[in-house]
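Hey,

The postdoc asked me to send both predictions to you directly instead of through the lab channel. I've kept everything plain text so nothing gets mangled by the mail client. Protein one:
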Amino acid sequence: MKVWAVLIVLFLTACNLQSQGKERHDSGPVKNCETGGSSGIAWHLLKDKNCNRLSDYRLFQDANNPLENPSGPGIAYQLATELFSDYAHKHRFLYVPEGSVEYDGVDVFQLPVGSVIAKTFVLPVSNKSEYARDIVETRLLIHRENGWIGLPYVWNENRTDAFLVVTGERIAKYISIDGVGVGFEYEIPTAADCKTCHISRTSDSSKIVPIGLKARHLNIEVSYEGRKLNQLFLWEGAGLLSGLPYARSEIAGIPVWEDETRSLEDRAKGYLDINCSHCHTPGGSGSESGMFLEYWRDALYFDHGICKRPGGYNGGQKGLVFDIVPGNADQSLIPYRMGLLASEGEGKGQMPPIARHLNHKEGIRLISDWINSMPARDCL
């Protein structure tokens, strides 16, 4: 009874704080866009206007429902494994105004100017729930003439529209984790925060790029009109994707991290790829660490963390020395830092460093099991 009493208090508190926060968006400082009387996607606004209301862009047939029925030519898509975001479920849609997406076997697909990626975050009641109804935010990535821009939209209390919050926000939420109620602050990123994860640098420039639109993340079977089809071949057949290899065996892929029919190493590497490699890659915001976590790299090499000392981190309260100590997860920094929280005063060590206020217990267990399964090795 005590657990449920705590849950009720957390729920009422969260609803009250959430309602207070939402009232600010409806009268935000950004002017509403003039959409005109035409129907369909407002490409002219997406081109260069940061509209206050998500509905101004007309990306969905029902402006109150960002979970299905995208306006044409939008298409829903899925990833093999999702980046962890406080157990939120995500609904992704891709809009390409004209032309097609250019296939790449390793890096992010090249999308034509005008393309839009919409991702809506929905919180479930518990970490075990397959259903989620609490629509919190919709993030847009828009490819404009001068590059990609990220715009975060927060849904109001009545779920009638979402409003632009360029300065970010934290909203009180709760979730049941393994039967125990947990209150936390869900974080809406600032527009500038988008650069932390989406940045790609070269010797003379930097730019924002998408994360999940890579062949290995998209190479999965999806349901389409009652059939199971490979997602990439579905895109090709719809004229959305060009340059796809004819032989499916030539296309990279990663396993779903929960799929226990796949090897523990492949599942762990796939999890690190989607959650970490956008920063831990040459040119990423974590490239200075010298640890690179793309799926295609050899997992037993130094640059994948094996017996590697971290750059710019002192090992935390446990004084750990190496990112991965084969055979010993307790002495490895990767699972340790996955379990740190900035909200508990451990912001310097938390990984990923932003937009996470809960620990992914299942993910930590997966990475720990993988490290413990490695042949033991003395890193000193």
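Protein two:
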Amino acid sequence: MNKGGHLRRYSFVIVGFEGDAGLLNLQARSMRMFCPPELIEEIIVVDNSSPGSRNWRDELLHQYGNHAGFVRIVPAADIAVMSTGASGWYTQQVLKIKVSETIRSDRYVVLDAKNHLIKPLNRGFLETPTGQPRMNGKPYINHPMREFLERTVEYFGLDPEEHVKWFTRTHPPFTILTDEACELVRHIEQKEARPFASVFLDRKLSEFFLYSGFLVSKGTLRKIYDLTQAEEPQVWPGNADEQGCAKAIQKASQTESPFMTVHRRALANMDKKGQTLLAEFWHSRGLFASTKDGIRFLRDPNRSYQNHEGRVVSWPVSRIASHFSSHPQKHSPRSAD
């Protein structure tokens, strides 16, 4: 609850671009099906596309359905000015922190295009009964992001050797306290006497490590966060085969996390058996009207099709899918998993 005793509403922040249009549409469809309106303050889509690439926005709003009224699309340039030629992988990280200055709620959940809901999102996943935000972490001793963790915690004068043994997660979903993120931006800009984006890009920092490292440096991370949030099933480029998809689907039935992560490059690497398994799973959750539609999406997520009304969509929209979106908890298969 908020201080006033009212149930807290969350902002959901997604940094996207035209190359992720298909996954963003899948995410939007999953949000309209499985994210209760009473949890939502707003959904902020930060458009990090190339100049002039706006064709995907209308379809994205269409996929949000009744949730479209919560959506605010913000050009990335309105949030931060980046140096010319800066990598999109870094600029999206800057935006996830800098966006805090435009957030109306006291906390926000950062999502990537690769995250989508596979069952109802409940308040207990995001916070404890007393309102403590939830998070999780892992060891980074042999993790590919170890270099980024070491560089980022060193920025705050922390000992990397101590923190590679355990640190907070490095990918969304990730809940951020708005005031803490704003304070982080002010702290860095005052310390460096230049814009937050310039410091972040020059030093090649990492957004969630930076945010968590700031809290660790103040001694508040473990006071603020409950660190037992369930981990979501994941399909990455390196495990996008039949075995990897089967493992992720099995975990989906066992974990309390309502999210699933499927990376864009995993779609390109996925074999036919993996595609069939994932498409069948998505269909079972009501995200696609048929397994065939799911496979069609996996083979070309950004391709456009036209339905009987001539509307351009990323995959065929049927009355079955619309039925699920209107009655997610009652009609979605296995929605109580």
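Summary for protein two, as requested: The chain is about 40% helix and 15% strand.

Thanks,
C.
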